[in-house]
């Protein structure tokens, strides 16, 4: 990054109404083709940042993206990915980049850690309540006081999704800057 430039992180998440995003290291619902296509379209050509558990649940680097895995495990190896161990190390890796799209794709700990720098959240809201052990870290109060719903588009269950969905874009009321 050059002096005067700023870089924001965009979060991309699929969640149920109760903010569940994961269960036993995977998703708490059946595969949703509409969400996969939405995710791919958003993140292709950008940088995706994920935690170790998310990386392991995916099982390989995502194609057509630069993959960064953040973990406190100093010995962790992720072939085809850059591994970082702190936010400072991640930011240092972005110093020379301009006009780059950075996407935080989870899990819960990484969303929490990077939330101060996240300016936009793309939510695929899976209509329903699902049991799970991993949640998106924003409280109801934070959603209502710090974020504003910019757009919402409904998607009715059918061939591309066994569930009704809402594709939402939330913007932080006060925009952060990574650098």
TrEMBL record:
Is Lyase there in the keyword field?
no
What EC number(s) does its UniProt record assign? 1.5.1.3
As its record notes, the protein acts as a catalyst of:
(6S)-5,6,7,8-tetrahydrofolate + NADP(+) = 7,8-dihydrofolate + NADPH + H(+)
Q: What does this protein do?
A: Key enzyme in folate metabolism. Catalyzes an essential reaction for de novo glycine and purine synthesis, and for DNA precursor synthesis.
Q: Which UniProt keywords apply?
A: NADP, One-carbon metabolism, Oxidoreductase
| PROSITE patterns from the UniProt entry | DHFR_1 (PS00075), DHFR_2 (PS51330)
Q: Which organism is it from?
A: candidate division WWE3 bacterium CG_4_9_14_3_um_filter_39_7
Q: Which example biological process does GO assign this protein?
A: dihydrofolate metabolic process
Query: Could you tell me which residue ranges the DHFR domain spans?
Result: 8-172
Q: Name one GO molecular function term.
A: dihydrofolate reductase activity
The family line of this record is: Belongs to the dihydrofolate reductase family.
Pfam families, A to Z = DHFR_1 (PF00186)
This chain belongs to the protein called Dihydrofolate reductase
Q: Which GO terms describe its cellular component?
A: cytosol
Q: Which SUPFAM superfamilies match?
A: Dihydrofolate reductase-like
Give the record's pathway: Cofactor biosynthesis; tetrahydrofolate biosynthesis; 5,6,7,8-tetrahydrofolate from 7,8-dihydrofolate: step 1/1
Concerning Gene3D superfamilies, the annotation shows: Dihydrofolate Reductase, subunit A
Enzyme class, spelled out: oxidoreductase
